[in-house]
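The protein record quoted for completeness.
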Amino acid sequence: MPLVAILRGLTPDEAPEIADALFEVGFRCLEVPLNSPEPFESIRRIVDRMGNRALVGAGTVLTVADVARVADVGGRIVISPNSDVEVIAATKDAGLQSLPAFFTPTEAFRAIAAGADGLKLFPAELAGPTGLKAVRAVLPKHVPVFPVGGIDPDTMGPYLKAGANGFGIGSSLYAPGRSVEDVRTRGAALVKGFEAARAA
């Protein structure tokens, strides 16, 4: 299930239950952005709960020092809103998965050359499926692309047709103050919507 749960604003106390709920409905990649409260503690608690059953890590990773901290708490993926070659190289040196963001072909190829495992198209709502299709035509086919920004079940189909491999999903899934049950319900709807869009 190539959907990344972006849990911006998650707190350590709610992290294990939210992770359980999302895992139950099919999510296998969980991202805690570093501009959340105590993000490294949240990552540590999710890793303790999930083990290797889910790919857990950090988003909004901007520095090499933060890559080291993600590794220290057991995170296995580093996601950034930009294409910083030093962060990508440090991520790969630490043995972690690298998913940096790009918006232009230049940024995409710079990230691939630095060792990125996949690419995050951000902000996807500005590029749109048309922009993704144009860039996808020149990118290596083995490099997965995940649009992020404005993604919900209604917008998935056009992106998949344009060459998306999966999606990062934030505010339509999780927001501070939402109950575990609300997040579970939203997550189930997103998984169902993705599966329907992929089958169409």
